[in-house]
Design goal:
Blueprint (H helix, E strand, L loop, with lengths): L4 H7 L2 H11 L1 H11 L20 H12 L3 E2 L7 E3 L5 E4 H4 L3 E2 L3 H17 L12 E6 L5 E7 L4 E7 L19 H8 L1
Antiparallel strand pairs: 1-4, 2-3, 5-6, 6-7
Length: 190
């Protein structure tokens, strides 16, 4: 049957997204991912849409924060504020790191609406915290990586499960590992 993009997202159907990347080109997909906050050097090939490139947990949280901020990207930072002994502010991230509108608010709102459905009627149901939230599960081939990246209006968090030296995760505590199982529950509990 034919799936709408929202339903395909909720069900993690890669076929629809393979068709989309075929229309927009892998190069454009890589460019948009970089604008959203993915700093990894992405290979612009058709498999990119399936998660074949290595992306850090920080990159994933950064990109999803851009959706949460209605299309405004803010570079991640680790030091919020630095003051001298006399109280003089030497650095304040709130004034030095400026948000940049990288996608329109309307596009971000559409993404937010679709990704909120993942928690209500999709593969991320284990992450449903009973309030407004959005996110996406992800599982690579042979369950070598399992993800859940989600956000509320005040917090974005990315959960990744895998091995430092990639290998299949057959199961964990007697359960199959996919983005919708352990990572979604970890995000929920966090």
């Amino acid at each position: 049957g034919v799936l709408a993009v929202d339903e395909a997202t909720w069900k993690s159907s890669n076929t629809v997204y393979a068709g989309i990347v075929n229309l927009i080109t892998p190069q454009r997909l890589a460019e948009v991912a970089n604008r959203l906050g993915v700093q990894a050097e992405l290979q612009p090939d058709y498999a990119l849409v399936l998660g074949t490139n290595e992306v850090s947990v920080l990159d994933m949280a950064s990109a999803y924060s851009t959706f949460a901020d209605r299309g405004k990207h803010i570079e991640p930072y680790f030091i919020r504020r630095v003051e001298a002994a006399d109280g003089e502010v030497l650095f304040d991230a709130a004034t030095e790191i400026q948000p940049e509108q990288v996608i329109s608010e309307e596009v971000a709102d559409t993404v937010n609406s679709v990704l909120s459905g993942v928690l209500v009627k999709g593969t991320g149901a284990s992450a449903n915290i009973g309030t407004v939230a959005a996110g996406k599960t992800g599982t690579t081939t042979d369950s070598k990586d399992a993800w859940f990246v989600g956000y509320t209006c005040t917090l974005t968090a990315a959960v990744w499960m895998g091995y430092e030296q990639p290998q299949a995760m057959e199961e964990f505590k007697g359960e199959e590992v996919s983005g919708g199982t352990w990572p979604a529950r970890i995000w929920h509990d966090f």
